[in-house]
Each structure stands twice: as C-alpha cells, then as structure tokens.
Write a structure and sequence with these properties.
The chain contains nine helices and no strands. By secondary structure, it is mainly α. Among the domains are: about 80 residues, no CATH class; about 45 residues. Helix 3 runs antiparallel to helix 4 and helix 8 packs antiparallel against helix 9. This is Tick transposon. It comes from Haemaphysalis longicornis (Bush tick).
C-alpha cells in the first residue's frame, strides 16, 4: 500500500461516515459543552445584546468546566505518581514552555557544515573520479548481455528497457567516433 492508496481509503471512509457518528464522537470526547450550549442559547435570544450576554455566559461556563476537568486530571495524575509532590499545577503544565525545540539554520552554517564534511572525507570524491569509463564497445556489449537476459525471461518490460537505454546512449557513443576513410578498410598488397 502506498500513500495515495491510503489517502483514497481515508477519503472514502470519511465520505461514508455520517454526521451523527461524527457528532456522537465529539460529544463523547467532551467537545460539545461550549459550542452546543452557545448555539442553543443563541437560538433562544431575541436581540443582539441578549446573544452577546449568552455567549459570555456560555464562555464562563465552559471555562468553569475546563477548570474542573483540569483539577480532576491533576488529581488523577497525582494519584498515579506522574506529578511529584509539591509541584504546582502551572509549573507542571508549563515546564517545557521555554525549551527550544527547533533551531533556525542559516545558509552560512549549512555551507560551513558541507565544507567541513568534504574536508573530513577527501577520498570519497576522488575515488569516484579515478574510475575509468568503459569504452563504447564495452557499453554496447553490456547492452547486448542485458538484451539476451531480458529475452530469456520473456518479460515485456525487461525486454523494452535495454532497447530504451540503447536509444538514449547510442547518440553519445556515436559522437565520440570518427568516420574512417574507405581506404582504411583495404590493405595494400
């Protein structure tokens, strides 16, 4: 399975999921309190001023519920031993607020890192340059070997690949050759 197939499956499952199922999941997760109450309260309001008061009241109620839920979560974590004794809730919640999780990298530092890495391993590039390129004859012989193997497997793609490679390489190989004279093929007696 690749990413595209996974996205197609995700999209299909999302499209088949009904609104009631999604609403029920959010309600069970506790997201319904503030928004649903605000919406139902707004429907009952007659004026803009009443609706603003309803939003403020719903927000205050939501904050009270959030604080109560936070205190309940703290008691649960303390009973499990996750929060050490004597640590304030704010200290626990914001202990990592000043931690630098990312670092801004500048172009100069990237260039410097690359230059340092090339200086540390000078042999890696020179080894690749020392390898002598095969001759035209060796390249064409290698293509013939690949073509023979591909034809023995009877796979269409395998047979097409050597032909495609040869079509790509042949102009370059032919550009290195010089045309001989007709007299070069005849020997003097």
């Amino acid at each position: 399975m690749d990413i595209f197939q996974a996205l197609e499956m995700f999209s299909a499952s999302w499209k088949t999921t009904s609104k009631e199922v999604i609403h029920n999941c959010f309600r069970k997760a506790g997201f319904e309190h503030g928004l649903a109450r605000t919406a139902s309260t707004l429907e009952a309001c007659d004026s803009v001023e009443d609706s603003e008061e309803a939003i403020i009241a719903a927000h205050a109620l939501s904050e009270e519920n959030d604080q109560a839920g936070l205190e309940e979560a703290r008691r649960h974590l303390e009973s499990d031993g996750a929060i050490p004794d004597g640590v304030a809730l704010d200290d626990f919640l914001y202990a990592d607020s000043c931690v630098i999780a990312t670092k801004e990298v500048r172009d100069d530092s990237i260039v410097q890192d690359v230059l340092e890495n090339t200086e540390e391993d000078p042999g890696s590039d020179t080894d690749a340059e020392d390898v002598e390129a095969p001759s035209n004859h060796e390249v064409l012989d290698a293509i013939d070997v690949l073509r023979c193997y591909a034809s023995s497997t009877w796979q269409h793609d395998a047979m097409q690949s050597p032909w495609a490679y040869e079509r790509t390489v042949r102009p370059h190989l032919m550009s290195k050759q010089t045309q001989k004279k007709v007299t070069d093929y005849f020997q003097r007696k």
